[in-house]
Specification:
Blueprint (H helix, E strand, L loop, with lengths): L1 H5 L2 H10 L5 H32 L6 H9 L15 H49 L15 H9 L16 H15 L1 H6 L1 H17 L6 H10 L2 H14 L5 H20 L9 H23 L13 H10 L1
Helix pairs in contact: 2-3, 3-5, 3-13, 3-14, 5-6, 5-7, 5-11, 5-13, 9-11, 9-12, 11-12, 13-14
Length: 327
């Protein structure tokens, strides 16, 4: 479910560029989204096979044991697996891609587009999961209640179950969707500001995250759950800041400061212990950020190129990223 939603940006971007000539920067960006998300999706699939279906059931799988011994275990990710790196990578890409889409599409089109992309497949997965639970099967569980009623089905479909206490979680893998939806709502709320002063919108977003995290214990349990989800928004904000910097909406020095502040807010969530089950989150985030900036850095050098001119590696703009990625 989460993987399907995170792959949605490719088609949107491709469609928006199809009506105009593709220059080097456009092609490199599409290649980055395609390859980066595909690899991340494979990591997620692997971890969901290796851990819930093999290791947790004490199955004998020498290949998985070998891979885990050289990836998840030495990187302190044995609890969730190497696919944990993919989650912040998905969020980074979403912040990078979805922000300009929101600015371009406007309120109504963006809201309708996001609603269909999130809630249509989510409803399908919810119905399948509910049917499995009714049939007495045992789909994946977080250990929280999986009571199936019309109310819990509604709250799980709308994703508000992740901010309601006590929690009823029918679809454990849908937790990333509430973070995406919160980001979409934040974009809609700040759309006028984003169109006029991106730096101010980012300041407001960072302040919002800080206030929510700082007050997480001041109200009730539902507010604390809300803060848990908000604690992941800094990852998307780093992606947004990267877009704002590369699109020259803000200067590099401002992007650097904003990026550091967003990183500090993410670590602040870890310091506050907002529901993170082990010590691997900051490391997974660091690796995701490293690969994100490694993958996007060639697009900046190609962005200034036009058709027929050469990239720094000697290739034409249309092949610059692909050559860099596999060289």
């Amino acid at each position: 479910m989460a993987v399907l939603e995170h792959l949605e940006g490719v088609g949107t971007l491709a469609g928006s560029w199809r009506s105009q000539p593709l220059e080097g920067a456009d092609k490199t960006r599409i290649s980055f989204v395609d390859m980066g998300r595909a690899i991340a999706a494979l990591l997620v699939v692997y971890s969901h096979v290796a851990h819930p279906w093999v290791e947790d059931k004490n199955e004998n799988a020498p290949v998985i044991g070998f891979v885990e011994a050289f990836t998840s275990e030495p990187m302190l990710m044995a609890t969730q697996g190497i696919g944990q790196i993919a989650v912040p990578f998905f969020f980074l890409v979403s912040g990078f891609i979805v922000t300009p889409i929101a600015i371009r599409q406007g309120y109504r089109k963006f809201a309708v587009n996001r609603f269909i992309r999130v809630y249509a497949p989510l409803l399908f997965v919810l119905l399948l999961t509910s049917a499995a639970l009714w049939a007495g099967l045992e789909p994946q569980s977080t250990g929280q209640s999986q009571e199936v009623t019309l109310w819990t089905m509604f709250t799980n479909w709308t994703l508000v179950n992740y901010i309601l206490y006590p929690q009823v979680v029918l679809m454990p893998v849908a937790w990333t969707m509430i973070i995406e939806v919160l980001f979409y709502l934040m974009l809609l709320a700040l759309l006028p500001v984003l169109r006029r002063a991106v730096w101010l919108a980012i300041c407001i977003e960072l302040t919002f995250v800080f206030v929510v995290l700082s007050s997480r214990s001041e109200l009730n349990e539902s507010w604390s759950l809300f803060a848990v989800n908000v604690s992941y928004l800094p990852i998307l904000l780093i992606g947004q800041i990267a877009w704002a910097t590369t699109a020259k909406k803000i200067p590099l020095w401002a992007g650097s400061i904003f990026g550091v502040l967003a990183w500090m807010l993410y670590v602040y969530g870890d310091i506050l212990d907002v529901g993170r089950i082990d010590d691997s989150y900051n490391l997974a985030m660091s690796i995701a950020v490293m690969f994100f900036f490694m993958a996007t850095s060639p697009s900046r050098s190609c962005a200034s190129s036009v058709s027929g001119r050469r990239c720094p590696n000697g290739r034409t703009p249309s092949t610059c990223f692909t050559g860099w990625a596999f060289s």
